[in-house]
Amino acid sequence: MSVLVRIWDVPTRLFHWSLVVLFCAMWFTGTQGGEWLQYHIWAGYGIATLVLFRLIWGLLGSQTSRFTFFIRGPRAIIGYLRGTLPEEQVPGHNPLGALMVLLMLALLATQITLGFFAADVDSYSYDGPLAHLIDSDLAESITGWHKLLFNVLLGAVGLHLSAIAFYALARKRNLVRPMLTGDQRFEREVGKLEFIPTVIAMVTLVVSAGAIYTLVTRL
């Protein structure tokens, strides 16, 4: 008999869907240009806050959100691919999903950093908040890298969505529902998982927002 297990806490789920919304907003406002770039910058601040929050939450958050819990070595990855590593032993992110999490966080962190130093090469009215710290030619070059990396990000998102579709069609495994409800069904019992109080996540979010605000206003 299958069992329903809580694997995702509220902070992790809110992070995920907030990131989806802000990523779409950043995409739209970035392609519009002009005065939309101001909204693009604000969306970037939001994503920067979320990424910093997730990095901290990956260290002190709930068990399934911690990097030390879901990042596994080559042996676990091979075992998962061969089907010898049961799902109940890797609740939350499976070994392949863990690699995608790391890839997305690395790409987003790099994209944010480039955006902070990017220049509005059309009007120079909406430069990144730290563009004044570097030479204008370098800022323009960084803008090109910022645009190029966004295409890489879109490719990573496409890969992520393809994996979700594969699990749904080939393995009959719905990966979207658990990120909405927090619960996932397993064929066997899963060991007790540790969840951190939501108030800790709220403090972490405030600290992250304060750090980003300080960075973009004090330098």
TrEMBL record:
GO molecular function: electron transfer activity; heme binding
Domain named Cytochrome b561 bacterial/Ni-hydrogenase: residues: 8-182
Pfam families according to UniProt: Ni_hydr_CYTB (PF01292)
Transmembrane segment boundaries: 12-30, 42-60, 96-119, 148-170, 195-216
Main location: membrane
InterPro entries cross-referenced by the UniProt entry: Cyt_b561_bac/Ni-Hgenase, Di-haem_cyt_TM, Hydrogenase_cytochrome
Topology term for the membrane: Multi-pass membrane protein
GO cellular component term, pick one: plasma membrane
GO-annotated biological processes: respiratory electron transport chain
Keyword annotations of the record: Cell membrane, Membrane, Transmembrane, Transmembrane helix
Transmembrane helix among keywords: yes
PANTHER family to which the protein is assigned, alphabetical: BLL0597 PROTEIN, NI/FE-HYDROGENASE 1 B-TYPE CYTOCHROME SUBUNIT
Listed name of the protein: Hydrogenase
Species of provenance: Microvirgula aerodenitrificans
